[in-house]
Design goal:
The structure is a single chain. With 273 residues, this protein is of the alpha+beta class. The chain folds into 2 domains: 120 residues, Beta Barrel (Barwin-like endoglucanases), CATH 2.40.40; 93 residues, Expansin, cellulose-binding-like domain (Immunoglobulin-like), CATH 2.60.40. Helices cover 13% and strands 31% of the residues. The chain contains 5 helices and 15 strands. The strands form 3 sheets. The chain has a 6-stranded mixed barrel with strand order 1-5-2-4-3-6. The protein is elongated, with a radius of gyration of 20 Å. The relative contact order is 0.17. Belongs to the expansin family. InterPro entries: Expan_Lol_pI, Expansin/allergen_DPBB_dom, Expansin_CBD, Expansin_CBD_sf, LolPI, RlpA-like_DPBB, RlpA-like_sf. One of its GO terms (biological process) is anatomical structure morphogenesis. It is found in: Secreted.
């Protein structure tokens, strides 16, 4: 399912009351207090709101603020992605985290949960409403609807949903390192993606060939991490150690960056969480 044939109603356009006032009223017709109580007492899902952006059948944006690029359109993300407000994006540390979201209030809701990955930031007015705001891709938003109802559903603009954190699961996919085009023998930068489990990262460290010292990398932006290299730190192959944000689980990708590494290339490890 995806949001076909309906003009996209991105949350960033909600400042045009003439277009969206009716949709907003319909989406909030159930008192929020009653909705919250119902979810808390009978449902493991917590209350949030959702909008959608980008192409009706697309992946939101071409990579967005996490730096995944066109990978958001392809497996294993497969366009089932979302931008998140500050409580979800976490200054980029939330990139890669996975959530189940479900819609029950709208008549066109399937009431079947879907899983999405945080791949972008929803800035500005996404922080003005509910504490947790998912700005879903058109593909993901449409997947919340009953079969055949995605077109009507996507015209709702903003909807109340339930959400919960879940483990990421990318079968037969290992952690991948995409080297930034600006990298060189003195500067190494990469985007890290496809982590199972927690999905997000708090610490990334690099170890050069022949060294027993782990050097901390700095978060550059989103899922992009960087480090300045000086001899003997610049000797590849490089091993990279990952530590997740909440559970502090660690994983080592031994010699994942080869001797002949090149800017713009991607290197798959042999491991995953």
């Amino acid at each position: 399912m995806s949001c076909h044939s309906i003009p996209q109603y991105s949350f960033y356009l909600f400042t045009i009351p003439a277009i969206f006032s009716l949709s907003l009223k319909n989406c909030t017709s159930v008192p929020s207090k009653l909705v919250n109580v119902s979810m808390a007492e009978t449902d493991p899902f917590l209350p949030a709101v959702a909008t959608w952006y980008g192409d009706p059948a697309g992946a939101g944006s071409d990579g967005g603020a996490c730096g995944y690029g066109n990978d958001v359109r392809n497996p294993p993300f497969s366009a089932m992605v979302s931008a998140g407000n500050s409580n979800l994006f976490k200054g980029g540390k939330g990139c890669g985290a996975c959530y189940q979201v479900i819609c029950k209030e709208n008549v066109d809701c399937s009431e079947v949960p879907i899983t999405v990955t945080i791949t972008d930031e929803c800035p500005g007015t996404c922080g003005d409403g509910a504490p947790f705001h998912f700005d879903l891709s058109g593909t993901a938003f449409g997947a919340l609807a009953k079969p055949g109802q995605a077109d009507l559903f996507c015209g709702a603009g903003i909807i109340n949903i339930g959400y919960k954190r879940v483990a990421c699961n990318y079968p037969q996919t290992t952690v991948t390192f995409k080297i930034d085009p600006g990298s060189n023998p003195s500067y190494f930068s990469c985007v890290i993606e496809f982590e199972n489990g927690d999905g997000d990262l708090d610490l990334v460290e690099l170890r050069a060939s022949g060294s027993d010292q782990w050097l901390p990398m700095k978060q550059s932006w989103g899922a992009n991490w960087k480090i300045d290299l000086v001899p003997p730190q610049a000797i590849a192959p490089f091993s990279i150690r990952l530590t997740t944000l909440d559970s502090k689980k660690t994983l080592v990708a031994e010699n994942v960056i080869p001797v002949d590494w090149a800017p713009g290339k991607s290197y798959r490890s042999l491991v995953n969480f």
